[in-house]
Amino acid sequence: MKIISFSNEEWEKDFLSKHLPAHTFIFVDGFMQDRTDVSDPDAEIVSVFVSSHVGATEMDRFPSLKCIVTRSTGFDHIDLAEALKRGVVVSNVPTYGENSVAEMAFALLLALSRRIYDSYKQVVETSSFSPKGLTGFDLKGKTLGVVGTGHIGVYAIKIGKGFGMDIVAYDPFKNDALANELGFRYVGSFDELLGMSDVITLHVPHNEHTHHMINMDNIEKIKKGAVLINTARGPVVETIAMVKALEEGILAGAGLDVLEEEDFLLDEDALLHMEHPNGEKLKNVLANQYLIDHPRVIVTPHNAFNTKEALERILAVTVENIEACVSGAPKNVVKSS
Ligand code: NAD
Question: What residue ranges line ligand 1, CB within 6 angstroms?
C-alpha cells in the first residue's frame, strides 16, 4: 500500500520504513495544507502530525484515501465530519504520553513557582549569585485544579499528590472510584474550580464544548493570583481573556505549551499570504507576542509530547494503526469530538 507521511524526522522515516517494509512510503516535508503540490491518486493512507490541517481540500488531493493516521492524541486538526462523509477512517495514538505531558505541565509550573528562568537569566547575564528578588512559592498545601481527568489529567493528579498539593478536579465524566483511590475530589462546576484553585492545569481535548472554556465571561471567576498551565490546546483558552487576566493580576503567571494560532508562529509566511486574514486571528497573533514577552509567562513550542520515550511509543502505535488499516480492521479509531 502507498502511504504519504508528512513532517517526519529522519529517524522516524527509518523507523516507519523498517517496521513496515511491505509498504511504499513517500515522506513529505512540511504541512499537508501547505504542500498543495503533493497529490496522489493511489495513496490510501496519509500520516500527519498536529500542524497538518486535514480538511476537504487536502482529502481531495488523495481520492483513494482510506485512513488518516495521526501521530498524536489530539485530532482537532482533522475535519472528522468530512472524513466520515467520505468513509475515511481517522486513527490516533490515544495514550502515548500521559506521563510525558503531565511532567511538562509540572516543568512549566515549577519554572514559574521557583522563578527558574529569571534565576538562570540573572546568573548568566549578570553573574550575580544573589537570591534577592527571586522569591518563589511552595506547591505543598496549594490547591491544584485539574480540568479533565483522562490519561494526562490523572497523571498530573498523581504528581500533584507527590508535591503535597490539595487536588480538585472538573470533568463531566467523573471517576469516583479513582477519586477515592487517589485522594482528590470532583467539584460541582467549572466555576467552582476556577474560584478555588491556586494552580489550574488544563487536560481536555479541544472540541466545540471546550473551545474558549476559559473566556472573557468567566476569567474574573479565577482566584486572584492563580497560575494557569495549558499543555492541552491553545483554543481552550480565549487569548485576550488571558491577556486581561495577566494585566489585572487575576493570573499571577501562566505556563503555556500551546497557543491559539500557534501555527502562525511556525510559519509566519502563511499569515502574510492568507487571502482574508480574519480580525480575531490577527488579534491573537499579536496577543501571542504579548504573552511570549511577558515576564510572568513561560511559553514552550508545543513540546510536551517531545520525549524520546513518548516519540518511540507514538511511532510504535502508528505502525500498529497503519497495519490495522491495511488489514481492513482499523484500530484506535476516533469517533467524534
Ligand atoms: P483523554 O481523552 O484521556 O482525557 C480527556 C478528559 O477530558 C476526559 O476525561 C474527558 O471526559 C475530559 N473532558 C472532555 N470535555 C471536558 C470538559 N468540557 N470539561 C472537563 N473535562 C472534559 O485525553 P488525554 O490523553 O488526557 O489528553 C488530553 C489532551 O491533551 C489531548 O486531547 C490533547 O489535546 C492534549 N495533548 C497535548 C500534548 C502536547 O504536546 N502539548 C500532547 C498530548 C496531548
Answer: 73-74, 97-98, 101, 147-153, 170-173, 203-206, 209-210, 231-233, 257-258, 302, 304-305
Tally the domains of the chain: 2
Is the pTM higher than 0.85? The answer reads: yes
Residues 6+ apart with CB under 8 A from 305: 72, 73, 96, 97, 100, 101, 311, 314
Q: What are the two backbone dihedrals, phi and then psi, of residue 66, each rounded to the nearest 5 degrees?
A: -110, -40
Domain range for 70: 2-96+308-327
| pLDDT tens digits for range 217-257 | 999 999 999 999 999 999 999 999 999 999 999 999 999 99
Distance of CA 111 to the CA centre of its chain: 19
123 and 41 together in one domain: no
Pocket test for ligand 1, best of 70, 103, 152 (most atoms within 8 A of CB): 152
Is 146 contained in some domain? yes
- Domain-located, residue 335: no
Same domain as 131, residue 56: no
